[in-house]
Design goal:
There is one protein chain. This protein has 317 residues and is α/β, with parallel strands linked by helices. 41% of the residues lie in helices and 14% in strands. The chain has helices at 10-28, 33-46, 74-82, 116-122, 135-139, 154-168, 172-190, 218-225, 244-250, 275-278, 287-293, 300-314; strands at 50-53, 59-62, 69-71, 89-92, 126-130, 145-149, 201-207, 211-212, 229-230, 254-257, 282-284. Strand 7 and strand 8 form a beta hairpin. The longest helix is centred in the N-terminal third of the chain and has 19 residues, at 10-28. The chain is elongated, with a radius of gyration of 23 Å. The protein starts with 9 loop residues before the first helix and ends with a helix. The relative contact order is 0.11.
Length: 317
């Protein structure tokens, strides 16, 4: 059994231990009774029953891995598919669009307006949602188990892979391997950043009304891994709304936009004097690309790939 690198996966460890005991006894046949004796206490304690603690702190018990899942959070939908369990999804929210096969599933609304009747008809064994959607309050009366999670940091990708593994019937070793591949991909993309951009002061604007990504956000963590210096400390909260004059005072050397406003930057009061605008070092992403960037999920390597390509282009001039 592989060594886990997350303190959140004791349940996952128990499930893997049961699987390993089963393999051991089947392999040795009758002689495996010796191994069976050593495993009896463990098997009797789990018997495929396990508990998952969600980010509301609620303990939810399952007797077996689930076979019917409704996801109301795009990042969680992507996580399920990254663990090769797309087939368990019977319904998703309107924003879950990757992989493309999810578009063929029934749409059950969103976090603000879930389609209760549709969800009930799909007969899910579990509903997955973000904690901020308060889905337990909205759907708890259906009698379906609801798990609410926060996916706001890079570490949450790893944590959720290990947490969801037993729920989906995925070996913990497989979930850990998926994360290892993500880590390797992130390191590979970080190494591709041009030396000219390393240490550059960067401002990442996520919307045209001056909401930006600080160091404590998922996007801020990516920028840190790419060797960029965020002009916003984590003390501001993940996505603070800023005064435009404050941004001008920070004089970023690189501006990254999560919306289409590049040609308008020089028209903003005093922005034409900023280094990033004067030197035309502005990164923009289309809707599909920002869709990837905005979700702290298994496609983080692709998100970094988009950023590295744009940064290197900006510093090639």
């Amino acid at each position: 059994m592989g060594t886990l690198r997350s303190s959140s996966s004791s349940t996952a460890w128990q499930i893997q231990a049961c699987q390993d005991c089963g393999v051991f006894t089947r392999w040795f046949g009758v002689l495996g009774l010796l191994g069976l004796g050593a495993c009896l206490s463990l098997l009797s304690s789990c018997a495929w029953a396990f508990v998952i603690v969600d980010d509301q702190g609620d303990r939810v018990e399952f007797s077996t891995p689930v076979e019917r899942v409704v996801s109301l959070e795009p990042a969680l939908s992507e996580m399920i598919c990254a663990l090769q369990r797309c087939g368990l999804l019977v319904g998703v929210d309107r924003y879950s669009n990757w992989p493309k096969s999810l578009k063929n599933l029934p749409s059950v609304g969103g976090g603000i307006d879930p389609n209760v009747e549709q969800i009930y008809r799909l007969k899910p064994q579990v509903i997955l949602s973000s904690r901020s959607a308060l889905m337990k309050q909205k759907l708890g009366f259906l009698g379906v188990k609801v798990l609410e999670f926060d996916m706001t940091r890079l570490q949450d990708i790893h944590r959720m892979m290990l947490t969801l593994a037993p729920l989906l019937g995925v070996p913990v070793s497989q979930a850990q391997e998926a994360w290892d591949q993500v880590e390797q991909g992130m390191a590979r993309e970080a190494s591709r950043v041009t030396p000219r951009a390393r240490g550059a002061r960067v401002y990442f604007e996520v919307s045209s009304d001056f909401y930006a990504a600080s160091q404590s956000s998922y996007l801020g963590e990516i920028m840190d891994q790419l060797g960029l210096k965020n002009v916003l400390s984590g003390d501001w909260g993940p996505f603070p709304r800023l005064n435009p004059e404050f941004i001008v005072a920070q004089n970023p050397q690189l501006i990254i936009l999560g919306h289409q406003a590049g040609g308008e930057l020089s028209l903003r009061s005093a922005w034409q004097h900023m280094d990033a605008v004067k030197n035309e070092r502005v990164c923009q992403f289309n809707t599909e690309q920002f869709d990837v960037l905005s979700r702290p999920g298994p496609r983080v390597v692709l998100a970094m790939q988009f950023m590295v390509q744009c940064i290197n282009n900006a510093y090639s001039r």
